[in-house]
Amino acid sequence: MLNMTNIDITVDAEQQAVITLQIDLGQSLMTAEDYWVATQTIGSEQRALLQPTLDRLGRELRFLLDGSVQQPQLTGFEISATSLAAIENPLTPQMATLYYRLDVSGGEHLNVQLADQLEIPWPCLMKIDIAGQALPQSRLLTNVDRLSRDTLLSSSAGNLESDRLAQLAYGWTKLAPEFTWVAVGFQHIVPYGLDHMLFILGLFFLAGGWRPLLLQVTGFTLAHSLTLGMSMVGIVSLPMSIVEPLIALSIVYVAIDNLFATKLARWRLVIVCLFGLLHGLGFASVLANIGLPQDQFLLSLGLFNLGVELGQLAVIAGAFLIVGWFRRQTWYQSNIAQPATIAIAGTGAYWFLKRIAF
Amino acid sequence: MNSTDTSNRPGKLGMILGIGVFTGSLFMVEHAISMVTTPLNFATEAAAPGTFPDTWIHGSKSAMDNQDPAVQVHAYNEHTYILRENKAINYEGAFMYLLFGNQKALLIDQGSTASAALFPLRDVVDGIISEWEAKHGQKTTLIVANSHLHGDHYAAWNQFVDRPDTVMVGLTHEEVMDYWGFSNYPEQRIEYDLGGRTFIVTGTPGHQSSELAMYDTWTDLLYTGDMFYRGRLYLEDWDAWAASIKRVRQLADEYPVTHLINNHIEMTSTAKVDYPIGTTWQPNEPPMQMTIKMLDIAVDAIDDVNGPGIYKYDDFMLYNEIPWSYTTDQ
């Protein structure tokens, strides 16, 4: 089974498709003799010999754009064979290559259909490579499956399929394109950044007024923006096997400091900023997996950061809505802040142990 | 005077204790969850035992009158299934593999026939999976993968595209590299985790330029697909194949191997003699599994081969970059 048929479709950024069809014509649509004769001629004579086969392919190999049949334009072909015997031998395929061009602009879905009467060497493997999609897609046409599954032509469809985070972002894109990166940043805190949420809550549960809290959150923010930016342009990098356990430790530290410090030490702000540097590296690793668009790098990085800030503010606002009302109560420390802080420290320690173990 | 206030609060020791207890209870919850799901243990210390059939179903004199199942199913052990397409349906008689780990099953190859009526591979695989799920109390995700990208090994691929809980690796080189995580194919070795069952995957181009070999650390089986089996090894790129066979030998040096397993049987039980190409009946077939000694002979063969042509060995033949004009059945 060496002579299966191949259809490669490459769609460029201008939505122009180049179609390459590789097929063993001498074993399928032409007799071995006719194909051999065609390979021994050139120019218009060769074209005339191939014309009936090209016409048949034009009718029976159909390219459907949103359901309607399109006529691709033949731009060239290459046919060759070592001998008539080689063409006749099914184990020594003598492949012909045909090139087509098709304008798919404005279309959303592309399908390929083989007419029922079209018999080609099976199976027929299609590779569809769309500009902007991370990976090509495979479609298999066989004598029993003659219509390919739908292929979405939009450049962002393919690589968004698997990532639920990116999928949510994709939903945002449709609503308001400029908010996409804000949304992605927000989701890095709520709901996917549980460790960052706990760190922020650790700051929240520190006894004291609003001023130190705001000061610490601002310091933390500036610090992680710095390392996030530096990491994304490749100035700094640390292996996640080191960053992740340290992030967990930072949660433990903040929580224990809450419990044991009798009064707010000045250097707490410094330490929180240092932890911010760490958390920035953590954000960068996740963001690197999604990838920032090269043409709008700084803008999207800024918007992402804005999203992270909004996520942090949402955590603090949420915490305040739930328990903030009781901050002035005498039992707030012993019944709410302390148990919560102990739980935060315990969770941080659990993560730390898990992260150094694997 | 707030002495009553402070006496109610736990001391430092109490708080440290509280943190410890909380951390400990998170580990206990995690352990409890893992106990409920009782994962299967695919230990690598000793090779998990398994058996091959004495003979495989090997077609029949008259393909029309063949009454054998379209897909022969053989359980090498309870988590390792070897499937073979009936030779009377397609002369390739290709072997396929269905391997189970916790919550995951890996199907390697989908045979040579597309039609579900003639070759109901999906039904057979679904049947094995649901039986396995019932027995082990687990739901599995099926991963549909391929040893290499030739049509006699993915013809029934479409039968799986609409299957729920299924990952289709894909049939393009790029998709294959992306799924397994190759950044340096073929030299790279990938440690692939099939739910606690670890495979070492490496690139073995030569017969086809996206081919993979896989070593199962649980059964110690080494799978060599179409690049090494008892038959006519069609090599489209000699240099690549020579490097691949050395790479497989190196793997077998570093890990204990019980058997080499693969995709076809084309040799007869007589040394240096193959069945005719395209035959649908192979009486007196030799076993599919091969030995390290045979692999050594293949490695030594590298020195024999000096250009395109057919090179015959006791248990395999090298069809090296044969010119297309060659008639292969001479």
- Spans of chain B of 5+ residues with little confidence (pLDDT < 50)? 1-8, 324-330
Give the fraction of residues assigned to helices of chain A: 40-55%
Annotation field: number of helices of chain B: 6
Characterize the main sheet of chain A: 6 strands, mixed
- What order do the strands of the largest sheet of chain B run in, or round the barrel if closed? 1-2-3-4-5-6
Most extensive chain interface and residues per partner: A-B, 46 and 46 residues
User: Which whole number gives the mean pLDDT of chain B?
Assistant: 92
Overall 3D geometry of chain B? globular
Oligomeric nature of the chains:
heterodimer
How far the N terminus sits from the C terminus of chain B, by CA atoms, comes to 107 Å
SSE order of chain A: EEHHEEEHEEEEEHHHHHHHHH
Shape assignment of chain A: elongated
User: Structural class of the secondary elements of chain A?
Assistant: alpha+beta
What share of residues of chain B is helical? 25-40%
The main pleated sheet of chain B reads as: 6 strands, mixed
What strand line-up does the widest sheet of chain A have?
5-6-2-1-8-9
Tell how many strands the DSSP assignment of chain A holds: 10
